[in-house]
Amino acid sequence: MPLYGYELIDGDCKICGGKFELRRPVDRPGLTECPLCRKPVRKVIGQIHTPKLLKPVSPAEARSAGFKIYQKRDRGVYERL
């Protein structure tokens, strides 16, 4: 399930701190009010988290994952390894 960030539209709140994050299914509609203080909220676009590739993938690892390996031979010509 994705993680959605929300912030209060007006003012601040001691209960929720003015902003919060919540895991919700994709098919559910967005929140219109804070579940704690019942004040109106809006969805905030947050950072996108992607996995980091720490080392290059070897051809053997790529083959074991089900990928086909090609190597460039000439201008625009690739040969399958």
* Coarse morphology: rod-shaped
Helical amount: under 10%
Distance between the termini: 38 Å
Measured by DSSP, the beta-strand proportion falls in 25-35%
The order of strands across the largest sheet is 2-1-3
Task: Report the radius of gyration as a whole number of Å.
Answer: 23 Å
Determine the mean pLDDT.
Answer: 83
Order of helices and strands: EEEHEE
H/I helix tally:
1
How many strand units? Answer: 5
Show unreliable segments. none
Biggest sheet statistics: 3 strands, antiparallel
Give the helix/strand class.
mainly beta
Task: Describe this structure in a few short sentences.
This protein is mainly beta and 81 residues long.
